[in-house]
Each structure stands twice: as C-alpha cells, then as structure tokens.
Specification:
CATH class of one domain in chain B: Mainly Alpha
Order of helices and strands of chain B: HHHHHHHEEEEEHHHHEHHHHHHH
Oligomer: heterodimer
Largest sheet of chain B: 2 strands, antiparallel
Largest interface: A-B, 41 and 33 residues
Helix content of chain A: 25-40%
CATH architecture of one domain in chain B: Orthogonal Bundle
Strand content of chain A: 15-25%
Distance between the termini of chain B: 16 Å
Structural class of chain A: alpha/beta
CATH class of one domain in chain A: Alpha Beta
Shape of chain B: globular
Number of strands of chain B: 6
Shape of chain A: globular
CATH architecture of one domain in chain A: 3-Layer(aba) Sandwich
Number of strands of chain A: 10
Helix content of chain B: 55-70%
CATH superfamily of one domain in chain A: P-loop containing nucleotide triphosphate hydrolases
Largest sheet of chain A: 6 strands, mixed
Strand order of the largest sheet of chain A: 6-7-8-3-9-10
Number of helices of chain A: 9
Number of helices of chain B: 18
Order of helices and strands of chain A: EEEHEEHEHHHEHEHEEHH
CATH topology of one domain in chain B: ABC transporter involved in vitamin B12 uptake, BtuC
Distance between the termini of chain A: 33 Å
Radius of gyration of chain A: 19 Å
Chain lengths: ~250, ~400
Amino acid sequence: MGILEVKNVNKRFGGLQALGDVNLSVAENSVHAIIGPNGAGKSTLLNCLVGKLMPDTGSVLFDGHSVLGRTPHEINQMGISRVFQTPEIFSELTVLENMMIPCLAKRDGSFRMHAVANMFEETELVEKAEHMLESMNMAGKHHMPAAAMSRGDKRRLEIAMCLSQEPRLLLLDEPTAGMARADTNNTIDLLKQIRDERDITIAIIEHDMHVVFSLAERITVLAQGMPLVEDTPENIKGHPKVKEAYLGEAH
Amino acid sequence: MFGLEKKDATLLVIVAILTLFAPFLLNPFPSESAMAQFNAGYPDLMQRFVIFGIFAIGFNILFGLTGYLSFGHAAFLGVGSYSAVWMFKLLSMNVIPAIVLSIVVAGLFSLVIGYISLRRSGIYFSILTLAFAQMSFNLAYSVLTPITNGETGLQLTLNDPRVLGQSATADGSIPVTSLFGLEMRSTYELVMGPWTFQFNAGYYLCAIIMVLAFYLSIRIFRSPFGLMLRAIKSNQTRMSYTGLNPKPYTLAAFVISGMYAGLAGGLMASMDPLAGAERMQWTASGEVVLMTILGGAGTLIGPVLGAGFIKYFENIFSKINDTVLHSWFSFMPDALENIVVILVHPFIGKGWHLTLGLMFMMVVIFLPGGLVEGGQRIRRLFRRKDDTPAAKTEPAE
C-alpha cells in the first residue's frame, strides 16, 4: 500500500463533475507526477488532499489515516507539506523569520503560547533555519525582506520552508509555472537533489512535460476529472490516449 | 538587559526616563508666562497620557501585529472602569484589587467577544467588534442600569459597604482611592523660581504600570508568539499550510489587548472613581485606532507617541478661546486682527477635532508609517553622510 491512497474520489461543482472516481496510489519515497490538460481536475484533486476542499464521496488515506474532514493545519501536522503555484511566503518578514516559522511549527505544534521568550535566543531553531538556508544557497540573505527576492529565490525559500518541517509527503503545484528555462532547470536540479538526499515522497502537478519526464517515476494522466492512465514515464510518452487527451480529439 | 536586545533595552530606558521626568519636561514654560497654556505637566493630563498610552500599546498588539482592526476596544476599557468602581464600592479604596479585577473582567469579556468576532476577518471582523461595542454601550446606558447606573454613571456613595475599608471617612465624606494608604490625588508641588512642577502619586503609579506594560509588549513583539502574529498579518494561507492554527493566536492577541484596555479602564477609575457609559462609545474606540495609526501601527513606540500627541492637542487646542486669539494677534491692525481670529476660530476650542482631523490626514498622506516614520526619515537625513550600507548589511545575530 502506498503512503497516499486516493479511492473513488468524486467532486461536483454544480453541474460540473470535477473529479469522477479518481483512484491514485503514491508509493513511499517515490516521485509521482499528475499531469493533464487544463481543467482536468489536477488542482481540485490537490485541494482535496490538503483539506481545502471536501470530496463528495470517496476516501483519502495518508499513511493509513483519513485526511478528510481535517483542516489544512492538521493535515500538515500529519506530515504533508504543500508548495503553491505562486510562492506563498511571508512577504513582509525577513528570510530568516520565514524559515523560523516552520521550524517553530515543527517543534511546538499548531499552537503554543510562547510570548516572553526571545525568538533569536532559540539557538537550536535559528541554527536549523540558517543551515537550511545555506543548503538552499540562500546564505547571506537572512535579513532581507522576503518580498525583495527574485521569483526563483521565493520558490526556493518556499520549498526550504516546507522541507524544514521534515514532511513525509511533499505536494508541488506546478512549481515551475511562469519560470524562465534557466530557473526551471534550477528547480528540477533542486527537486532531484531533494529526492536523492531525503526520505521523502513527492507528488507533483505539472504542465511542463520536460519537468515531469526528468523527475517522475510514475505518472498519472487526468482528463476531464477521470484518471486516464497510470504508468512509467517511458510508457506515457508514446501512449495514444495521452496524445488524444492533450490534442483534444475524440470525446 | 531584561532579556531584551540592546536597541529595545535602550528604547525602554528612554521611555522610562521620559515618563519619570514628565512633570519637568511637560512644564517648560513658567507658570505665569503667556506660554503657560502650552504646559501639559499637570496631574490630570499626565495621567491621561500614560493611561491612553497603555490602551494604545495593547491595541497595537492586536492591530499592529495581526492586522485585525477592532472597532470595539473601548468596550473593554469601559468594562474595566465599571469593575474597578464596583471594587471601590464593595471592597476597599485600595487600587490594587480594583485594577486586578478590571484586567480579569476585561479579559473574560474580550474572550467572549473575540471568540465570536474572530470567526470572520477583514471588514466583517471590524463590523462585528463595532456592533458588540455599541451593544455594550447601549446596555450600559439603559438595560443594565442596576449595574452601571445608566446615564448618570457609576459613582461612589456614602452608603457603599466597602467591607475592607470604611463607608465614609471620619468627617463624613467619601474616602479617596489610595495605594495602601498613599492617596492617588496627593500631589507634591515644587516651586523653582517662576516654575511650578507637580508630582502626583496617581501619575507615578500609572507611569510605572505603563513602563511595565511597554516592557511586556516589547517581549511579546520579539517572541515566537509575536512572530506568529506577524505571520498572520502577512499570509494566513501559508500559515495554515505550515501546520499552524491562526485562530488561537489571534484570539490570544485579542484577549491580551482587551486586558490592556481593561487595565487602562481600571487605572482611569482609580484616578477618578467614576465610570460612565460614554467611555464605551464607538468614538472612544475610534480614538485608539487614530492614536495607533497616527503614531505608527506595528511599531513599539508609535502608539504611545500617538496617544500623547492626540491627548496633548485635544487639551491645548480645546483650551484656546477667542480672547486668547485676540491677545496673540493684538499686534495687527484691528480689522486684520478680527479677520484672522474669525479664520482661526473654527480650529480651536470646540473645533479642535477639525485641527486633529487635518493633522491626521497630513500624517496618513505624507507619513503612512505614522510619527515613527517621520522620526526615521529625519534620522536618515542626518545619517546619509555616514556609512549607511555598512550599517545595513551588518548581521544582527
């Protein structure tokens, strides 16, 4: 059984069947990509996994526990971190403060009244945050406001924040959307490095086939809310059904 | 020092010194001179400076850090005042139990209102808090008359039980508030040449409490809790997807700021033991919003500056009348003098709100960061010649 098991998930928005009987199994410590044309239901599926949307029917199990009906912060505390299409970071805070927040969340849980300690005297956490920034090549930017960074750096910071929580499953929502080719390649290298160095499962939603084929071990193709095929990248490449879905013929 | 970074400790010490020497600093003009009306060094006004300072410091913990704009904080101030007066009526004239009770009651009250109002954010949150405050005001004014004494306001009487004190003094008057025997109204006058300086026990109690409240707010600002509050203001989506529950954090901030407001209300009643419903009115809630924004929301010292600024100008401008104006402009020809007085007239006396409104607009337009930003700009002007880049890149670890 995979670390993430999605079974018969259905989601309707009024008359639109956004997800129809989606089944998905993500194996532990693998990279699993979910691809599909616009409107295929990729983002809806992702939102069902993180507690933003509640499926109408079906089940979503993470490590054997249901995530349905839980809030985003509870699901995160179970070990699922999400990277957004446009980097969601704390723009008004400094880079180091941005890193401190997930470190505190990892140590103290979803709420702890910690009102008189000095933040920067939490040496252990500061070191952890600094170490993480160094490993992401962001040393020397500690006291810069996060908003002042480049798009690529914001993306790296967001990934670093997610990783500092040591999640078991990292969900990436089009991590290279709107990036220049060079930035895209940097992100691919970063994700490869994460995949190889950590015990982590990565599920990635992506438009860019270049990204998908250089990273994924398994690929699920969604079309019109239904899983079309699930296979290895090699087999997906030439699959007639996939071509059909992307070129919009038939149906 | 005191578990603070050097910069914050310096700020705290400066604030402490300024409040300690306020009776001198606020009385720069000899008492008989024409400028004496600009003096602010008398007990009643100085007490208001520090009490509203406490109110604004607490409000800033909610508004400055989390960005949740409450329009109902005067309700907590009012509740604090009522609690304190009841303590004077039932228990004793000692201010300590009164202040403690006012903090506790305001805390409980803000827990209830905060719990409900924080189900929404943005403008809806503001409207909910406003609605609650107006409800409290109207209840205090009418329905709850047995507790609040309605229109007249809650006052001490000779028939109050005061179980630990006395209902009336030996000479048959109502006893005065005190701190273990030290009367709050007792004032020592120091005459130095043409100057008269007043040292009031009540002011010093309020000032010490304000410095402590300010110290606590610095600790909160620099704590992991304070960081979480700033994270809420910055990005709630990232916050919940980082495994943090924003609700208890905002509620805690709301209750803390409510307790600060209750403390301010309790001190107000301790200085002058009466409480009226008008303290809870929405204009009073709006005033603390103005103070915080005028001084600089989210900064440490801003709210205190804003409170002092508004209370000072309220007092000075509302005191100036046409007679004073005529004496100022008497050097002009009579016709011109009259025109000038007519032109200035709407801005003074009862029209001081107009002046305040204009000043507020100026600050918001030209200094969005409040008075604190003004100070920073001036400091930068002087520092430009020095080595600014070096100071900027120096890590603060």
